[in-house]
Design goal:
Order of helices and strands: EEHHHHEEEHEHEEH
Strand content: 25-35%
Shape: globular
Oligomer: single chain
Largest sheet: 8 strands, mixed
Helix content: 25-40%
Number of helices: 7
CATH superfamily of one domain: Gcn5-related N-acetyltransferase (GNAT)
Radius of gyration: 16 Å
């Protein structure tokens, strides 16, 4: 478990398949995730089984974002509010792509995604010894652009007409987070 002040990141559990069914099959999220068709329970169960393997084998990892409950709030513990992913893990070039989803819409814009990304960045640099993280964000997704910028990702380019949905082409911003001590060299 990777613990912060308000959330922690944990390995997937079999019960997370139910939540993945909801989030992965939400057609409103498909343009962000690049999904083209619904996921079956079997496919997500197989993904879960694969997720139990080592990141060096699978080249990816998904961690659940869970709230840390306390007795002074109405927020209960063990409430999973989303997922964060490292994908295209490349140990030779020491980089990986990042994706995040706070699927519970009531838990958005409360700072949880920022903390989850900060925890993921720390894990990526301190445990996996990565040099950099990157993400692709559609230019109209202002919330994600702001979120990644807030935690230290920097814009390094724009990919024109990169994704298509709703019968239109959309530009995508490429953002990177390079390990701070690496920039000193």
């Amino acid at each position: 478990m990777i613990k912060g002040n308000y959330v922690y990141l944990r390995a997937l559990e079999p019960s997370d398949v139910d939540l993945m069914m909801i989030y992965e099959n939400d057609t409103e999220l498909w343009p962000v995730s690049g999904t083209l068709s619904p996921y079956s329970r079997f496919t997500l169960e197989q993904y879960y089984l694969n997720a139990m393997q080592d990141i060096y084998s699978t080249r990816q990892i998904r961690l659940a974002i869970e709230l840390i409950g306390d007795s002074d709030s109405d927020t209960s513990s063990n409430q999973t509010i989303g997922f964060v992913d490292l994908f295209d893990f490349d140990p030779l070039h020491q980089r990986a792509g990042v994706g995040i989803l706070i699927g519970d819409k009531k838990q958005r814009k409360l700072g949880y995604a920022s903390e989850a990304l900060i925890l993921l960045i720390r894990y990526s640099f301190e445990t996996l010894n990565l040099h950099q993280l990157y993400c692709h964000i559609e230019n109209t997704n202002e919330a994600s652009l702001k979120l990644f910028g807030k935690v230290g990702f920097r814009i390094c380019g724009v990919l024109c007409d990169w994704v298509q949905h709703s019968a239109k082409w959309h530009d995508v911003t490429l953002m990177q987070y390079i390990r701070p001590e690496a920039r000193l060299n």
